[in-house]
Amino acid sequence: MEDMDLDGPDVVKKSRKKSDTVVPVKLTGKSRLTFNCHPGVKCFTACCSNVNIALPPYDLMRIKKRLGITTAEFLKKYGEIEILEKTLLPIVTLRMGDDEKRSCPFVTPKGCTIYEDRPNICRYYPVGMATLRKQGAEKGKDEFYFMVKEDHCKGFEEEKQWTIDEWRADQQADLYDEMNRGWMEVLIKKKSFGQHEFPDRKNELFFKVSTDLDYFRMFVFESSFLDIFEVPAEQIEKMRTDDVELLKFSYEWLKHALFAEETMELRDNEEVTKRKTKIEAAFTKRKAESGKK
Q: Using omega within 30 degrees of 0 as the cis cutoff, is the peptide bond preceding 126 cis?
């Protein structure tokens, strides 16, 4: 038996409308499509409403920077917090307007006001990515592309032709995929655990680190973090001012903090010894309390 996960791993998606049709043809990067979207197309911006758009860390970072606001300000005005069904992890989604169409807050009749920094899900459209695999199997995955066609979309009537690779390059989808890959790896890892919830502190840690780089930068540079973990001096200096460098580092930290993966190297000093002793004491206490029940 085989499962198909749409939009790559089915841990995070853009919800589709009832009018959407997934064309049942497996495509590759060399497959061709005829499509174009511009203000002259009759349906221009019609696809920018009544959708559920997840915002991975890089997408969120780009939009916040463009707007010049903090994570807290973004969440208050534009964001929602959603628990992903397959991972039970909290993520940020874009809040649609309260008008009849549930329009994207950044779209006007003239187009997207944050177009250069729009989410990756918007960049992919009308292309989707899927993984076909045998149920329960980790090997033999078959990744491919597919086409999504909405009844109202006139972009397919345009004459512009692309290969899917050309379309993705034009939309900078590869950049966004690369920058969010570490985050996706965390989601996939959590998904493999099945429907088991993390403790609240781990959920909070995941959410804060993956949404608020200002918080994570403070955590790294204004705590005992660098006394505990060995981080190359050159990387430390980059992370002080470079959000992209800090974002990549945050993925490695999350893998260590959430799954105890050996992505971080501990220093050999008194601070680390204290930390290990504290962890071992807490583990012994929990084990003893469990034995009394």
A: yes
pLDDT at 268: 82
**pLDDT tens, residue by residue, 199-235:** 999 999 999 999 999 999 999 999 999 999 999 999 9
pTM of the predicted structure, to 2 decimals = 0.83
DSSP letter at 122? H
Sign, Cα dihedral of 137, 248, 232, 253: negative
Contact (Cβ atoms closer than 8 angstroms) between residue 109 and residue 219: no
Burial (Cβ within 10 Å: 0-12, 13-18, ≥19) of residue 60: buried
How many residues make up the chain in this entry?
A: 293
The residue type at 105:
P
The values of phi and psi at residue 45, to 5°, are 75, 0
Give the dihedral sign, CA 30/34/39/44.
negative
pLDDT tens, 141-173? Answer: 678 899 998 888 999 999 999 999 999 999 999
Both tokens of residue 165? Answer: 């690779």
Structure tokens at 44: 């221009």
Q: What's phi and psi for 273, nearest 5 deg?
A: -60, -45
- Count of beta carbons in the 10 Å neighbourhood of residue 220: 19
Q: Does residue 272 contact residue 228 with C-beta atoms inside 8 Å?
A: yes
Q: Which pairs with CB-CB distance under 8 Å and at least 24 residues apart come from 222-230?
A: 224/271, 227/267, 227/269, 227/271, 227/272, 228/266, 228/267, 228/271, 228/272, 228/275, 229/264, 229/265, 229/266, 229/267, 230/264, 230/265, 230/266, 230/267
Q: How far apart are CA 14 and CA 11, in angstroms?
A: 11
* Residue type for position 172: Q
